[in-house]
Amino acid sequence: MLETECQKTINTIPALIEKTFPIPAKFRSKLPSDIAELSRLLTNKRGDRSLSYLARPNFLSAYLYYFLPWNLFRLCLLIPTLNIKLSANDSITDFGCGPLTFVSALWIARADLRNVPLEINCIDRSSQAMEAGKKFFTALCEAAGLGGQNISWKINLIKEDIDFRKTHKPSAKKRNPASLVCAVNIFNEVYENIPHSDPQALEKAAASAAVLLNNEAKKDAPILIVEPGVPQSGKFISLLRHELMKLNRLPASPCTHAENCPFIGGPAKMTRGRNWIDTKKRWCHFAFETFSAPRELHRLSAAAKIPKERLVLSYLLTGDSAGKRRKEDAYARVISDSFPLPENRYGRYCCSPDGLVLITGKRNDIEELTPHSLEKYYANGQYDKKSGALISEVK
Questions:
Q1: In this predicted structure, what is the pLDDT of residue 99?
Q2: Among 25, 244, 340, 384, which residue is least crowded by beta carbons within 10 Å?
Q3: Domain termination residue (choose one: 322, 354, 375)
Q4: For residue 390, which of 363, 361, 362, 352 has the smallest C-alpha distance?
Q5: Can you give the residue range of the structural domain that contains 28?
Q6: Is 70 exceeded by the pLDDT of residue 324?
Q7: Do 145 and 185 sit in the same domain of this protein?
């Protein structure tokens, strides 16, 4: 659930977008079909998509009216749960910023940072998307009574095409290392073009991306990656986690530990090292309900015939929280919905220092848990025959 003030701002987003980017009446009726077509291009028709697709006015409008507000809503659910600390005169580097989605979400979700002087380097291949994003961000600030000289954040728009599949040296642009580096919805353009049957290529892409992100961040700065919650995303982020750990960038969230990722493939990291996790069926991702999203956005989604009842994401934040957490603390991150088990029991899968854990109990007790929450677990030495997960009773 969003906090009250954040929810109020999110509810105003569709009207603010319409006011900031008005569509002539004769083109408005095509908006749902343009949204549907852009959705296909961003998912199962990626091969038909031009790198400059946001340069087309109809697709840019579709992105601004539909994808921008949904992505803002999704990030505003996630950001308050993350331990991101920023101080005056810190800098942020945002790769693949598009229409400044992360910047706007950070401003909405972290009201405590609005008056903190920050410099934000927004990097994208599409100048049209960045200019639209800056216009929207200005409108967002003005709607809150801030504008012009009252905006504390300095935003630099940098047109740059980053190829994460290549090994990178420090940027020739001579950016100072940032206090936060983020990459939101950018890697899917890399790993979705890699055949699922070529794990080595995926590992190589993750290694290259880790080097680039590491080069752009200060030594102790957090790095945030957020991707759609599909299997290939979870696999890529697990590999990226592994590569960042090689560079001494330990996971802080959602991981509860700095052990091997149970979803990276191969033997599960469990107390007694038994069984395998089928990474084709299970991957690290989180689902959020959308009942609190703006009604206007739900109506537009229905008109485009892509209604959203849940938002699903995979993400990684580096830091040192998981690295400092003691194994005996025995906390697990809930990563699945509840599901029925034999003998009128219910369960949820969780990730823990012991690998995959299946927390079981009565239906009401299990359904009270929520995806992404941290839960204490109590291993009894038994393993689930189907998944290989360590079984724990809810207490």
A1: 95
A2: 25
A3: 322
A4: 352
A5: 4-322
A6: no
A7: yes
- Residue 33, CA atoms < 13 Å, CB-side half-sphere: 4
The CB density around residue 163, as the number of other CB atoms within 10 Å, is: 11
105 vs 171: CA distance, rounded Å: 26
**The two structure tokens encoding residue 341:** 């088990």
* Domain termination site, one of 298, 322, 346: 322
Q: Rounded CA gap, 276 and 259, in Å?
A: 16
End-to-end CA distance of the chain: 24
Nearest Cα to 268, choosing from 357, 197, 341?
A: 357
Does residue 99 sit in helix, strand or coil? coil
| pLDDT for res 326 | 56
Same domain? For 253 and 371 the reply is no
Q: Which tokens hold the place of 304?
A: 């485009």
Please report which residue ranges of 49-97 form alpha helices under DSSP H.
57-62, 68-78
| Predicted TM-score of the model (pTM) | 0.91
Give the three-class secondary structure for 159. Answer: strand
Q: Distances in Å between the alpha carbon of 337 and those of 60, 182, 225, 332, 351?
A: 34, 28, 23, 14, 13
Q: How many Cβ atoms from other residues are within 10 Å of residue 123's Cβ?
A: 23
CB atoms within 10 A of CB 249: 25
317 and 332 housed in the same domain: no
Judged by phi (left if over 0) then psi (alpha if -120 to 50, else beta), residue 273 lies in left
What CATH number has the domain bearing residue 222? 3.40.50.150
- Summarize pLDDT for 99-150 with one digit per residue, the tens: 999 999 999 999 999 999 999 999 998 899 999 999 999 999 999 877 665 6
